[in-house]
Amino acid sequence: MRPQGMKSWNCCVFLQHLTTTLPMHTSGVGNHQMFLPLLQRAAEMKSTGEGDKMSCRRSAIINISTLISSIEKCPETFAIAQMYPYRTSKAALNMLTRCQAEDFKSHNILVTAIHPGWVRTQMGGEQAPLTPLESVQGILSTMSSLSNKDCGMLLDWQGNTIPW
C-alpha cells in the first residue's frame, strides 16, 4: 500500500499496515467454529423454497470482500486503488471464503463473499457512485437469490460473479 502521498514502495510501512488489516479482515471469519453448531442446525431445517439445499433462508456465511481483492482484476483496478495491505488482506478473506465453502458444503451451509460496490463512505469518498442504502439494498437482493451455484464464489452487490 502506498499511504496517501507515498510515492515509492516502503516494506516497513507495508508490513505495519498489513499487520493491522490482515487480522481485521480474517480473524473474525476464522472463528467460524464458535457458531458452527447454530449454522448446522439451521441448515438441517426443511427448505420452503425450490430444490437447492443451500440458501440464505437456511444457513449461510456472507463475507464482505471487494473487487480489488481479485487477482485476475488487478491490472484493471490497480491504478485507481493500489492499497497493497487492503488488497492482500481481502484476498486472504477470499481464500478463507473458498476454504469454508469446501469445508461446509457437506453440511449444506452456503458460504460466499460479496463486494458491496464503490460506496460513498469515509473510505469510498464522495465521488463513489453508490449510496450506502443502494449498496445494502443490492446486497440484500443478491443474498435473497443465492443458491448452491453461488457457494464459494465472489459476487458483487448485483449478483455478478467476480473472478478470483
TrEMBL record:
Lineage: superkingdom: Eukaryota
InterPro entries: Fungal_SecMetab_SDRs, NAD(P)-bd_dom_sf, SDR_fam
GO cellular component: cytoplasm
Record Gene3D superfamilies: NAD(P)-binding Rossmann-like Domain
Gene Ontology MF term list: oxidoreductase activity
A Pfam family assignment: adh_short
PANTHER family assigned: C-FACTOR (PTHR43544:SF33), SHORT-CHAIN DEHYDROGENASE/REDUCTASE (PTHR43544)
Name this protein carries in UniProt: Zgc:158868
